[in-house]
TrEMBL record:
Listed name of the protein: 8-amino-7-oxononanoate synthase
Subunit structure of this chain's protein: Homodimer.
CDD domains according to UniProt: KBL_like
Protein encoded by which gene: bioF
EC category name: transferase
One Gene Ontology MF term: pyridoxal phosphate binding
Function of the protein: Catalyzes the decarboxylative condensation of pimeloyl-[acyl-carrier protein] and L-alanine to produce 8-amino-7-oxononanoate (AON), [acyl-carrier protein], and carbon dioxide.
Domain Aminotransferase class I/classII large as annotated: residue spans: 43-378
Pathway: Cofactor biosynthesis; biotin biosynthesis
Residues bearing PTM N6-(pyridoxal phosphate)lysine: 236
Binding, substrate: 21, 133, 350
Keywords: Acyltransferase, Biotin biosynthesis, Pyridoxal phosphate, Transferase
């Protein structure tokens, strides 16, 4: 039918399903507030949990890095793109998290694709939590390994999958804190089962690093688990962009040989690595920010409980309110926006069918009055 026809048909279907996605142009985007079309909103859709994206120390480090190294890496790390700040950041991350090695990637999406793509071979199996991030599931389904999914956060379900025989290697994949639900994986149980089966565990802690655990070392540290493969990302609590994979010596060497995202992609700018070193220090010293965030989460949950809102059992900055119907979720999001609160509606296929929700995220930058305004707006929007 031709490319154009195919594209237009897909767009028509998307519109009919009320799943039309669009990007909104913002003129200011901060952890606590944002500006759109000349109007200011309280921002409850940011993953910048500690408010580091506009931290003066990190901006200064980026500027100094740019003055010294220029604004671009100029090549892949395998050619001439691997500079002093990359090496230092990798060493600092490895030491901080207690791993022999860390490898930098341009994004969490790339890190997951690279690690799973380079490791998984035919005959292997990847056992992933049903709600694992799209980047993990996509990497697994593109790989020659067999992908099977276990019930969300259910170690017993993983146990059943592990019981069936597999001649190849086993990789178990989960998130530390789930991006759309805010709940945490039972890492200790998952890791124990994985080890019993002779497999490796990969934890993607995009939403736990910087926030959970001592010094913000993340979900694994908090739960006293050291998975064989740990992916952390820098676009959320670190307030910047990029990612790292933590692993042992040989795995790092292996990925330097075989991970195509490292070999065929320009390295992150050295100035960004400098900024990330400053962000790492801010995270390490960020107990006050984590305390403020915890206070904001508690204030929100208490208020929401009083209003009888459908809270889910999440102790983290991600506080989804389940709506179910997609149209309704969009209408609620609009109603909140009219009241000055920016809360994105999340719809399938990002979440399972019937799982449309308002994904509220809290940050250290919110003030008590921001949270109270959100609660008031939610109350009004609910009774509409
Ligand atoms: C955001 C996210 C990613 C992608 O990381 P980017 O650096 O934004 O590409 C991967 N995994 C999870 C769980 C995420 O939430």
């Amino acid at each position: 039918m031709g490319w154009q026809q195919r594209i237009e048909t897909a767009l028509d279907v998307r519109r009919q399903q009320q799943r039309w996605r669009q990007r909104t142009l913002l003129t200011v985007n901060r952890a606590g507030w944002l500006q759109h079309d000349g109007r200011r909103y309280r921002n409850f859709s940011s993953n910048d949990y500690l408010g580091l994206s506009d931290d003066a120390r990190i901006i200064a480090a980026w500027q100094q890095g740019a003055a010294r190294y220029g604004v671009g890496a100029g090549a892949s790390g395998h050619v001439t793109g691997y500079a002093l700040p990359h090496g230092e950041l990798e060493a600092e991350l490895a030491q901080w998290l207690g791993y022999p090695r860390a490898l930098l990637f341009n994004s969490g999406y790339a890190a997951n694709q690279a690690a799973i793509g380079a490791l998984a071979a035919a005959g292997d199996r990847i056992l992933a939590d049903k709600l694992a991030h799209a980047s993990l599931l996509e990497a697994a389904s593109l790989s020659p390994a067999t992908l099977r999914r276990f019930t969300h956060n259910q170690a017993a379900s993983l146990h059943r999958l592990l019981a069936s025989p597999c001649s190849g290697e086993t990789l178990v994949v989960t998130e530390g804190v789930f991006s759309m639900d805010g709940d945490s994986a039972p890492l200790e149980e998952l890791h124990a089962l994985t080890q019993q089966a002779g497999g490796w565990l990969l934890v993607d802690d995009a939403h736990g690093i910087g926030v959970q655990g001592e010094q913000g070392r993340g979900s694994c540290w908090q739960q006293h688990v050291r998975p064989e493969l740990l992916v952390i990302t820098f676009g959320k609590a670190f307030g910047v962009s990029g990612a790292a994979l933590l692993c042992n010596e040989q795995t790092a060497d292996y990925l330097v040989q075989f991970a195509r995202h490292l070999i065929y992609s320009t390295a992150m700018p050295p100035a960004q690595a400098e900024a990330l070193r400053a962000a790492l220090r801010a995270v390490q010293q960020g107990d006050d920010l984590r305390q403020q965030l915890a206070a904001n989460i508690a204030r929100f949950r208490q208020g929401a409980r009083q209003l009888g809102l459908p809270l889910v059992p999440s102790a983290t900055a991600i506080q989804p309110l389940l709506v179910g119907d997609e149209g309704k979720a969009l209408a609620r999001s609009d109603a909140l926006r009219q009241r000055g609160c920016w809360v994105t509606a999340i719809r399938p296929p990002t979440v399972p069918p019937g799982g449309a929700r308002l994904r509220i995220t809290l940050t250290a930058r919110h003030r008590a009055e921001d949270i109270d305004s959100l609660l008031e707006a939610l109350h009004d929007a609910q009774s509409e």
